[in-house]
């Protein structure tokens, strides 16, 4: 079984590397051609849906090597100034509540050839895309609470100002960096809950799920944790403790109180109600 897993992992890695390398070569070849915008959009759709890293030359925010997973956050009503070079991608992200109408406005250089392409995606699915050479305004409805990624591309230099208006969801940062999860943190009955597996694994813990007993076990560096969905009782190194709220299931994610992350893994956790931001450091 272990051998099969290793083989599958090796094949998957090889395929991802081949796709990434080939895409970079194709992107460099088509830059400057009249078809570059069309091909660029097609490449973006394929890469975003397969979870690959989009070819990136330089990021105005975040430094070289920025990907959609390490995108710069867009805050409601705040202007984001940026500059794209020919063939460059830049990435932003926002966390929106379910049912929220997100309105985007992007203004920049105007000219017959100065076209900017914008792709909005959520869970590796394209939600909205648009291209314009004279700035653009568009909107979309957040079908569920979560992180929406904004990818910008141009085949010429493009100076722009981006603004988004929406009701923000809860943003999680770990050691000062935005951390995106499939299931966003939520506020329930006055208690902030976070997805346990995503957060614990990001902090270096291993997590196991027992579907029969609806029990979750986690361990890290000599610390063991156990809890059951629907209960506020947990065990840390065998000692019974009571969480300030019960663990619940939302979608496919087990959600635990933010305070429990601190108690179980000794991480520093804080909640800023004004900015709706959870900050975790360890």
Could you explain the architecture of this structure?
The chain has 282 residues and is of the alpha+beta class. The protein folds into 2 domains: 2-165, Jelly Rolls (Sandwich); 171-281, Copper amine oxidase-like, N-terminal domain (Copper Amine Oxidase, Chain A, domain 1). Helix content is 21%, strand content 42%. The protein has 4 helices and 22 strands. It has helices spanning 2-30, 36-50, 196-202, 258-265, and strands at 72-73, 80-84, 88-96, 101-108, 116-122, 125-132, 136-141, 146-154, 158-165, 171-174, 177-178, 186-188, 191-195, 206-210, 215-220, 223-228, 233-236, 239-242, 248-250, 253-257, 268-272, 277-281. The strands form 5 sheets. A 5-stranded mixed β-sheet has the order 1-3-8-5-6, with helices on one face. Strands 14-15-16-17-18 form a 5-stranded antiparallel β-sheet, covered by helices on one side. The longest helix is centred in the first third of the chain and has 29 residues, at 2-30. The protein is elongated, with a radius of gyration of 21 Å.
């Amino acid at each position: 079984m272990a051998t099969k897993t290793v083989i599958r992992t090796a094949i998957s890695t090889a395929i991802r590397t081949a796709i990434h390398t080939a895409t970079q070569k194709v992107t460099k070849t088509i830059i400057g051609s009249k078809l570059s915008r069309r091909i660029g959009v097609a490449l973006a759709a394929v890469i975003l849906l397969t979870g690959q890293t989009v070819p990136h030359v330089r990021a105005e925010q975040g430094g070289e090597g920025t990907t959609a997973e390490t995108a710069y956050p867009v805050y409601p009503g705040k202007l984001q100034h940026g500059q794209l070079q020919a063939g460059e991608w830049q990435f932003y992200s926002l966390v929106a509540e379910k049912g929220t109408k997100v309105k985007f406005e992007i203004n920049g250089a105007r000219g017959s050839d100065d076209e900017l392409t914008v792709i909005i995606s959520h869970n590796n699915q394209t939600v909205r895309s648009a291209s314009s050479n004279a700035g653009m305004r568009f909107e979309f409805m957040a079908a569920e609470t979560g992180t929406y990624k904004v990818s910008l591309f141009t085949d010429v230099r493009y100076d722009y100002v981006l603004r988004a208006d929406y009701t923000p969801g809860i943003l999680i940062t770990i050691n000062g960096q935005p951390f995106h999860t499939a299931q966003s943190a939520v506020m329930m009955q006055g208690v902030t809950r976070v997805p346990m597996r995503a957060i614990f694994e990001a902090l270096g813990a291993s997590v196991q799920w027992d579907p029969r007993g609806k029990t979750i076990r986690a361990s890290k560096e000599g610390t063991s944790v156990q809890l059951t969905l629907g209960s506020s009782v947990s065990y840390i190194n065998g000692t019974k403790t009571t969480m300030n709220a019960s663990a619940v299931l939302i979608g496919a994610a087990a959600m635990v109180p933010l305070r429990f992350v601190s108690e179980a893994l000794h991480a520093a956790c804080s909640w800023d109600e004004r900015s709706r931001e959870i900050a975790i450091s360890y």
